[in-house]
Amino acid sequence: MSITKDYINTFFNKLKSKYQHAGEFCLFTDVSNLQSIWQHQSLRCRNYIVSNNVKFHDSASQQVLNAAPNKNILNYVRLYFAPLTPFTWDVEGITRVD
Predict the structure, then answer these.
(1) Per the CB 3.0–4.6 Å rule, which of 15, 37, 48, 84 could disulfide with 44?
(2) How many Å separate Cα 84 from the centre of its chain?
(3) Count of CB atoms within 10 A of residue 24's CB?
């Protein structure tokens, strides 16, 4: 599934009207993937990237991916509505400063 800029704008406008706390989102990827994202003007799910041999730097933990209870999650692009999530703590190594 290809997610275009228009789709994202429409989706987030619906979210903002339904949920007052919805705002900006975060996408975690390696900086070397940005050129491909801008070139194609879309975000692609992991299954699409792998099955179409799209060149990308994979920064995901294979242990986390393999432990996913539902492999259908690989058909979606992960977007986060907060920069500090359990994903970022465990996989990215980003922690809160107390």
Answers:
(1) 48
(2) 14
(3) 9
Q: Is the pTM of this model over 0.90?
A: no
d(CA 80, CA 94): 14
| Contact (CB, 8 A) for 82 and 49 | no
Helix (H/G/I), strand (E/B), else coil: 2: strand
CB 42 within 8 A of CB 4: yes
Distance CA 13, CA 91 (A): 29
28-79 pLDDT, tens digit each: 788 888 888 888 788 899 899 999 998 888 888 788 788 878 888 889 888 7
